Amino acid sequence: MYPQSIDIEVDVGDGLIFDCMEEINGFWISFDLFDIEEFELLERVRVKRKLIDDLKWIIKDVKKVAKDLNIQVPHFALACYFNPLNRVLYCIVDKRKEIVYLRLPMVIVDGYTTIDVDADEYDHLIYHELMHAKDCLEGRFPSCGVIIPGENPELDLITSLWHFSIEGRLERSGLPHRSREKVIEIEYEWARELKPSKNYITNEFFEKFRNKLWGKEVTFEELQSLLSNLRKDKV
Ligand SMILES: [Zn+2]
To answer: What angle do CA 150, 23, 43 make, to 5 degrees?
Structure first.
């Protein structure tokens, strides 16, 4: 089935609005193309059809993961970013919990469009992102675009702790996940860059929270109060 042209504004909250121009196998698609030349190229039907075919594979993979995680939602919106300067990816849910919005950095390799991630991380990335959506849909975390990486150090730290819960639950379910060691490494690396820097963020800090949170179903409020108690201790 060739994609249908659509014109839907997906409002995910906090002023985040995405124009979806295509519908492919039930997914609303928006594109952010890095430069106009690429855009013109994509407008040529042959190239566009190829892109659509490649996206169908990704959509199939996302649908499988949604099924595995028991995610049921009326709509999925996929934002494909071809901008190498903007690598941010995330998965959020709109306020009414009707749309799972997945933003993915994309890359074209040998004429094929795919998610810009190492091949051995591909499956994990989709499971990881949809776990965020699952927690929002099931009410443990707020829906709408409040948790966007890099915008708020407080929320970034909460997201780091959230990852211990996510990866542990994926591990327990026998699904693609990161190892405990890897998660510490990545979150520590990420948190060290937070501004203003926080001196209580150490490897030991993350180890403590990983042991506490690994594989547990947690809520946004629980993580928030864990961090605020910690700050009180340090003052
Ligand atoms: Zn994440």
So the answer is: 85
Last residue of a domain, one of 137, 170, 195: 137
Question: Are 40 and 72 in the same domain?
Answer: yes
Q: Does 120 lie in the same domain as 193? A: no
Domain that holds residue 207: 153-234
CA 178 to ligand 1 centroid distance, Å? 11
Per residue in 1-28, pLDDT (tens digit) is 456 677 777 766 666 677 777 888 889 9
Q: Residue 148 C-alpha to ligand 1 middle, in angstroms? A: 10
CA of 207 to the centre of ligand 1 (A): 18
Question: How far apart, in Å, are the Cα atoms of 208 and each of 104, 213, 214?
Answer: 31, 9, 10
Cα 45 to averaged position of ligand 1 atoms, centre (Å) = 35
pLDDT in tens, 131-146: 999 999 999 998 865 5
Measured in angstroms, how far is the CA atom of residue 133 from the centroid of ligand 1?
Answer: 10
Distance CA 83, CA 105 (A): 7
pLDDT tens-digit profile of 155-190?
A: 888 999 999 999 999 999 999 999 999 999 999 888
Residues 129 and 157 grouped into a single domain: no
Separation of CA 49 and ligand 1 centre (Å): 31
Quote the distance between the C-alpha of residue 177 and its chain's center: 14
